[in-house]
Amino acid sequence: MKQQSKKIDPLTQIAPLIEAVQIVDIRLVEASVGTSIRSANEAGEVDLTIRRSADVKEYNKDASMFWVLVKIKTELIQREPKKGAAVFVNVVFEIKYSLPKELEVSQEQLNTFAKINSVFNAWPYWREFVQSMVARMNLPPLTLPMFRFGNATKVRRKKPTEIQ
């Protein structure tokens, strides 16, 4: 009989890290923004797509530090006519974390932490950046969704005249 391996819940796996790590620094290391529209009315109905990823960039065990790169790609895609992104905002944040010296962690734990917790940590910085950039494009405020687990988020937006 084949023995099934027991899957460990990712949050249980990284619970010791979540309880112990501290954010030392978060910085924007890359950004690209653009728009192909002059107004929200010109865009019409759009789909908001958010894709994100995170990877451990470096782990210095001796210094009890690790760095994570969080990438978040945001696009407002016009439904009709299909022209591509009406607005895009892509960012990369680098987050520096400190660990207690006595905490033993595996590379797998760090990778799981990066994919879940680091994206969660970067989310408010990303939301503020997108809000600011969209305002500088002279477009109406864009209310972005709360963080949800998974790799992508899609939200449908109605025409500005239909929003109550």
Which band does the percent of strand residues land in? 35-45%
Tally of DSSP helical segments:
3
What is the CATH fold-level name?
Answer: Bacterial Protein-export protein SecB
Question: How many β-strand runs?
Answer: 5
**What is the CATH homologous superfamily assignment?**
SecB-like
Mean pLDDT: 86
Across the major sheet, the strand order is: 1-4-3-2-5
CATH architecture assignment: Roll
| Low-confidence region ranges | 160-164
Question: Could you estimate the helical fraction of the residues in percent?
Answer: 25-40%
Write a concise keyword list for the protein shown above.
alpha+beta, Bacterial Protein-export protein SecB, 3 helices, 27% helix, disordered C terminus
What do these coordinates show?
There is one protein chain. By secondary structure, the protein is α+β, with helices and mostly antiparallel strands. It has helices at about 10-20, 40-45, 105-135; strands at about 20-35, 45-60, 65-80, 85-100, 150-155. About 25% of the residues are buried. The protein is elongated and about 55 Å long. A five-stranded antiparallel beta sheet has the order 1-4-3-2-5. α1 (about 10-20) packs across α3. Mean pLDDT is about 85; it is low at about 160-164. β3 and β4 form a beta hairpin. It has one domain: Bacterial Protein-export protein SecB, CATH 3.10.420.10.
Topology, please?
Blueprint: H1 10-20, E1 22-35, H2 40-43, E2 46-60, E3 65-78, E4 85-98, H3 107-136, E5 152-157
Antiparallel strand pairs: 1-4, 2-3, 2-5, 3-4
Helix pairs in contact: 1-3
